[in-house]
Amino acid sequence: MMSRTMTGAKMVVQALKDQGVEVVFGYPGGAVLPIYDEIFQQNEIRHILVRHEQGAVHMAEGYARSTGKPGVVLVTSGPGATNAVTGLTDALLDSIPLVVLSGQVPTFMIGTDGFQEADTIGITRPCTKHNWLVKDTDKLADTIHQAFHVATSGRPGPVLIDIPKDVQFATGTYIQAREARTAHYQPKVKGDLDAITRLVELIETAERPVFYTGGGVINSGVGASQLLRELVDATGFPITSTLMGLGAYPASGKSWLGMLGMHGLYEANLAMHGCDLMINIGARFDDRITGRIADFSPRSKKAHIDIDPSSINKVIPVDIPIVGDVGHVLEDLLKVWKARGRKVNKDGLARWWTQIEEWKARKCLTYKPSDTAIKPQYALERLEALTRGRDRYITTEVGQHQMWAAQFLHFDAPNRWMTSGGLGTMGYGLPASIGVQIAHPDALVINVAGEASWLMNMQEMGTAMQFRAPVKQFILNNERLGMVRQWQQLLHGERYSHSWSESLPDFVKLAEAFGCKGIRCEDPAKLDDAIQEMLDYDGPVIFDCLVERHENCFPMIPSGKPHNEMLLGDASTEGAIQAGGAVLV
Amino acid sequence: MSALNIKKGSSSHSAYDLRDPHSQVVETHTLAVLVDNEAGVLARVIGLFSGRGYNIESLTVAEVDHKGHRSRITVVTRGTPSVIEQIKAQLGRLVPVHEVHDLTVDGPSVERELGLLKVVASGDKRIESLRLAEIFRASVVDSTLESFVFEITGTPDKIDAFADLMRPLGLAEVARTGVAALSRGFA
Ligand SMILES: Cc1ncc(C[n+]2csc(CCOP(=O)(O)OP(=O)(O)O)c2C)c(N)n1
Ligand SMILES: [Mg+2]
Q1: Interval B6-21 mean pLDDT
Q2: Of A164, A82, A86, A97, whose CA–CA distance to A129 is shortest?
């Protein structure tokens, strides 16, 4: 029988073990030294020493999104905690479960502007789902267990526990997870059966239905993705997904329309615009999805399944709100639909698919091929072809390359696609790829990057080297802040203010400096061999793929426009964004 | 915490179910929020309002269950029906929040606020202020030869009206508690 009296620092490690934590991403400093001392004296929990605390949080996000388990981060007080803020905000917007532990100056110094004191609780209050300052060692274990409960229950999100140094040194009584206080936070998971039945009635008669799915399906777990597949295949309804939900329904599935939204596929956006029944499953009507609100899917009845009541009617008023966990609701929905005879409107559906096939025939992802320059789309098509069939995990940075990756790479399973959706954080992809690789040491993990984003957290290559994470950094190098340049072209009279990547490093030499492999390719004819070389190399690779510099990402729904006013690749872009849309981000 | 001029109509009982949820009409609602009385809970609620651009017309907070460490926050806020619904949903999402009641739509409720008003006056004005205080059932809680401090309890409107009358008589300072509210009956 384990002694229940121990120091706060020991409690931290004990509680993490009891929560099943295998990996902690962290960086030491004065205010967390007692915890680091405990980490030193054990072997069960692996500690990954990052190079910057932002990297630690994105790694934990990559870990969490690829495993479904919460990611754990340990940082020191002051600058350690403030460096974690971007990652926390990223995780909050994308609903990623994280438990971040920060050190704090001792309780008797709080408020004195002590060395490395920051009001971590105040700073992180708006960027966490919840946070706690623990002032009493006796409450520490209870708080850590609660933190895991809150991070992973309901709509997942990041939480932070601020632990003053004297609390780490003092002794107190440890309690087990099952003794911790969790009863006060029990979000509802079962959906209302009447509402589910009303949705089934609409499913039975709809002529032009569409499933619009999001990250909530992935967060609900692998079982939810399975149920979604069953429902989509049994009804034969078309399905599209947000950036966050890719992989929940397989891209190889016959009902798949591709991603929707600002850079979504023509057929997906037109199906959303023209449908008569929209079934939103775990998505949140984000502005990248809706375009101009007043013209959003004007003729449809809308159902919305979401575990967070505040997501419902926030942006788009819906006819059938269903508050509950996607997995639970889909299970009930399938039961009710089957019990009532598995009805759908076959004739209507056939006409709807005919219409959709017409839209598909528009082949909206077509781009002008080139023998002299590597088109970014081509690079991704080749990456897709050369990695098909492998258990492959993709992370991205933020920009044009991210949207092309979402368009040209195909995901057949959930938890294989990690990208910063809500916050759009440049610098996310490299650390996230390391977090994924730590969780899946034998898998193929590729970060599809832009050169500008990649530089934002490139110090983490040191982490990849130290912990032998053979992540592949596939940089689509257009020597431009491409997405910014595209907007300047469309919106600001081609005045390219500060959207160049000047003074770029030599990425191959940079790779050598880190001790990993560097590859450069600028010839489309040599691209396959170069990609194969990257895939075959047993270790981290920085791949500098020099691509066409001024390629634009299409389709594009300019800000403030409705779905049916999409720009396609061959369209004139002059005056595409009008004054009203220009104020939007 | 309360604004000096609390807007009228904060306790109107609109027939909520008949309201158009997409209406752009701005309504005033009184919300009762039951929370764990833990450090920072008030900052969380206030941060939610400021961060998401909601209005706070009045806000009061006090522990109401010492054993259970529960506090009751009463917020008077304004917004369109959909904004009010968002505010309630966002409050409900905070981890230390146990219950959110919209007293404006849940049925009849009583609202009270306490005000302390200092009136500096002599002669007729001094006498008149005392006379009006009697009509408003305000009581004198401090007096000198040149001043009174009146204590008045009532709806925000009543306190507004009393303050308006005292102004020409020498109103020097006002302190108000903000609204406390409960539903009527035993619902
Ligand atoms: C931290 C951060 N700063 C600024 C931005 C705004 N931004 C969005 S995309 C982009 C350019 C990204 O350039 P790059 O990584 O090279 O990708 P590309 O668009 O060229 O593919 C910028 C600056 C952002 N999303 N994140
Ligand atoms: Mg670029």
Answers
A1: 38
A2: A97
